[in-house]
Amino acid sequence: AQSVTQLGSHVSVSEGALVLLRCNYSSSVPPYLFWYVQYPNQGLQLLLKYTSAATLVKGINGFEAEFKKSETSFHLTKPSAHMSDAAEYFCAVWKGRRALTFGSGTRLQVQP
Amino acid sequence: GAGVSQTPSNKVTEKGKYVELRCDPISGHTALYWYRQSLGQGPEFLIYFQGTGAADDSGLPNDRFFAVRPEGSVSTLKIQRTERGDSAVYLCASSPIGQQDTEAFFGQGTRLTVV
What we know:
The complex is a heterodimer. The radius of gyration of chain A is 13 Å and the shape is globular. Helices cover 0% and strands 55% of the residues of chain A. Chain A is mostly beta strands. Chain B is built from no helices and 11 strands. In chain B, a hairpin with a 2-residue loop joins strand 5 and strand 6. Chain B is globular, with a radius of gyration of 13 Å. Classes of the chains: A mainly beta, B mainly beta. Chains A and B meet through strand 5, strand 9 and strand 10 of A and strand 4, strand 5 and strand 10 of B.
């Protein structure tokens, strides 16, 4: 079964610092991978997705993620954090049954 | 509407009562999903509709949970004999055709509290 593991339930960075949120997947076949963001009291919003077209995927709000098959990873990065990036971030993989399997989430705090 | 709409946004019910949660997907989206998000966890899949039929209901936890989508648009998640463990945020999502590389759009969720 396909699944994802997010390392670190909470990450705190200073404004302007690099953001790195970790996600590892387990899959016997090349997966479809996603990063979603959830702002307080809002629905999940797609940041970016990997569908095997390119290993470096650029998303909205300056985020990007790199698919590394050798490391079974799909970490999310942003060069410079903004206060508005504070939210919960979820990595997800497409299940064989056409629905998403989500990680447990990482809450990002951005300190002024 | 412009996005996925879920009503009510909050629901408090007593243990043992019956509740219905409603989802209005984006117009024209044939695929509809229900997820449940417990505190501190990621969303967990419940059921997937393609059109009017439930294509996959393997995530429903037990027979107290049931969902319908009679006309292929609005969906209702029904929970009988609610238990305190059912307390969670119930999320609905829709996508144009339900394939794995298309984006699913999520509603804001219904926060269910069973007291």
